[in-house]
User: What shape does this take?
Amino acid sequence: MSTQHLYGTPAPQPSSTSPTQPNPTDAPEKLHLTSHNQYKTPRLLRENLHPNPLIQFNTWLSSALDPKDDSPQVKEPEAMTLSTALPNGIPSSRVVLLKTVDEKGFVFFTNYNSRKSQELTSNPYASLAFYWREISRQVRVVGRVEKVTREESEEYFQSRPRGSQVGAWSSAQSTAVQEGEVQSIVDEKTREFEGREKIDCPDFWGGWRVVPFEVEFWSGQPSRLHDRFRYTRPQDSEGGEWEINRLAP
Ligand SMILES: Cc1cc2nc3c(=O)[nH]c(=O)nc-3n(C[C@H](O)[C@H](O)[C@H](O)COP(=O)(O)O)c2cc1C
Assistant: This one.
């Protein structure tokens, strides 16, 4: 792999008189990224793919977590970019952690009042993207979302460290807050829960499952001639057959 290069034109000097007070009209420096990394992983071949993309995903995830050959271990392979969109089509993305892959799809947990949850409620479709840099692999998932059962959310909530449980109760995720406001709610909630062995899962917190109708596996190859395979099935056929196509890189 080649080294990364970054160069840019110097930003104009801040015109504000106080160095601690950035001027809101300062222009950003223009940066160019000029790297040309050469990706090289073993070829991805049609005959090596499992007909079920969830099983294929699990194979990739297992080898990212615990490589059987001499390929590097991937750091936090469960981190995935989740994209949602408003009904008018305006998208937004953020990183969340994959917690379960079950026979239906990909599960993550969050605050049900957050921006992402509001977008998923008003437009129940999502896309996920995994990028496993160390092994030059990418996976894209597109699907319809559903909330997991209350039991699943409660069970997972109970497995979280106590600090994260208190944090979930204390954060009205995605809302604007004053400096120090969240910490004072954390302190208040910590006192409230003191002496209690079990902290219940808040009603406003739980899991979403992305039930895919498209899953794409991407494996980096030299000269941008990457291997790509896309699994698709009709949007309304949860148990349906998957069609697999190789895609041009
Ligand atoms: C590595 C990483 C993992 C994260 N995992 C989660 C997660 O599992 N659930 C979650 O709600 N937010 C998670 N976050 C925070 C989200 O990226 C995001 O800031 C938060 O959920 C609010 O997003 P929203 O305002 O779009 O709803 C994670 C962030 C990072 C960088």
User: Anything to note?
Assistant: The helical segments are 53-65, 115-122, 150-159, 162-170, 181-193. The chain has a mean pLDDT of 92. Residues 34-152+206-246 form a domain with the Pnp Oxidase; Chain A fold (CATH 2.30.110.10).
